[in-house]
Amino acid sequence: MRLDLIPQDKKKKKRKSSKKKKKKVLHKQQTTPPRVALSNLFSNQRYPEGEIFEYLTTNGNLQRTTAEELRHLSILDNMDEEFLNDYRQAAGVHRQVRQHIQNIAKPGVSMSHLAQEIEDGVRALTDHQGIETGDALKAGMGFPTGLCLNNVAAHWTPNPGAKEVILQPDDVLKVDFGVHVSGRIVDSAFTVAFDPVYDNLLAAVEAATNTGLKHQKSSRKTQEAGVDARIDHISGAIQEVMESYEITLNGKTMPVRAVRNITGHNILRYKIHGDKQVPFVKTQTNQRMEEGDVFAIETFGSTGKAYTRDDIGVYGYGRNEHASAAGLHHASAKSLLKTIDENFGTLVFSRRFLEHMGVKNYHLGMRSLVQSGVVEAYGPLVDVPGSYVAQFEHTVLLRPNCKEVISRGNDY
What we know:
Layout: H1 8-23, H2 38-41, E1 51-54, H3 66-78, H4 81-104, H5 111-126, H6 135-138, E2 139-149, E3 152-154, E4 172-181, E5 184-193, H7 199-213, E6 215-217, E7 222-224, H8 231-242, E8 246-249, E9 252-255, E10 257-258, E11 263-266, E12 277-279, E13 294-302, E14 309-310, E15 316-319, H9 331-343, H10 351-356, H11 363-371, E16 375-378, E17 381-382, E18 389-398, E19 402-405
């Protein structure tokens, strides 16, 4: 029918009806498992802020050198609305994905299934599948999925082709994964246990992490994790809280011990570990927290020696940005390095990530890259057999006027 033959009043009705259709469009709800991009759940793409703490104290007397001050001001310039929105989006993705994992992490589930659900969820919710060249650098997984059982403290992931590991009723499982948006990484972890005998272990570590995030009393002074806070004071307070808890296993009562050789850390853009560390035990350091810093405040508590060693196996790989690739001779190594640079940069990645992209026959090239020092390989960290380790972790942004625990949720 020709539009110019329709009476004017019907033309208006047609336009009105079109407007009504637009009003019927509803915001999508998240699915189970989570597969709806977070940007589709927030029409204005403004994401909820984390937990906000006003600073309790300020130190106006702290003096920085000119070079430090210039570097610091440069960091603050980058902590703009885009920075905050990227971090809040990554945190929102983390919360929704981990909620699903908490629902399915039950005895009988395989570690490879949990890892796949985490990685599929993160890629779907960030709306970046990480298959096309460079897409994984825009948003997606911040580092390999960590699924560590019992005495394995950190850095274990299910690798393709390896023997399947099944979650057991008496296991203590640590789930540690990262989400990044434009290289802004949210790093957060939690622990799951099914036997109430481990309740105090989990409670000790969660309390210690919250101590590191919030406000503590050490033997010397009240100290908070925030601008100009001394890291050694925070470390001492973390240890004091964690080791005030006891756990009884097999009729023996023992204190929960803070792991001595793993630390929290600051996070840089596209780099999960910066140059600042936050130990869980009292230490001596002059390092302070500064405005503009992003920290992963994490703690590990153990029923064992509370000292980890490297174990066999590979968790992930990371590009050594200071190493020259000039000495590489194998074509397979050169090709693989090109893939790494184009898709991960300085993000730590796993074999699962490579195979997700369709990379094949990479083992020889990877061996060459690791041997030449161009790529670093990371293995699991374990305490003594028979011990149990728990972990809790949050990412906190040290904004100029407040600190924002960006990854905080209703769960932990």
